[in-house]
Amino acid sequence: MIHVTRALLRKWIAALLHIHDSPQRTAAAFAVGVFWGFSPFFGLHTVLGLVCAFVFRLNRVAVVVGVYVNLPWIIAPYYTVAALAGATVLGVHLPADFAFRLEQLVAGSMFSHAFWTGLFGLMRPLFWPYHVGSLVGAALLAALGYLLALPAIVAGRTHIHLRAHAVAPPESH
Prior knowledge:
Structural class: mainly alpha
Radius of gyration: 21 Å
Helix content: over 70%
Shape: elongated
Largest sheet: none
Strand content: under 5%
Oligomer: single chain
Number of strands: 0
């Protein structure tokens, strides 16, 4: 799994380095993608990111790369932590038997009407905490994405430029 993540990371970085926008616009487009990738609008991430890319004339590749930073093995822990943080901020308390009731639901068939009715009833108190927590988390991660992407893009483009023009790198002392 780590090998897959490293390969994806290299591919994403390569895509970001070959975009012809300024490093600031590329990093901003990446950050917009990160925001939508971690937003509460699960399932609409790509569409919402691309709509923003078209509306604000951002590079679509950079936005999509940012959207897909939210990898499958990050999704469940992120949204769990975001919902719990939102619940703490909003003062929402889960029922004491929440875990037991969730276990009972999962033990049943997800193809039954009772499963979905029970699940929606159980998750209803988490609706606003989920949205608040993941919106705040998405904004923080987008800011972090911009701050990390900008120097990486500048350094990567400098490296590509130096390699393309066969300029020897400065010697370190």
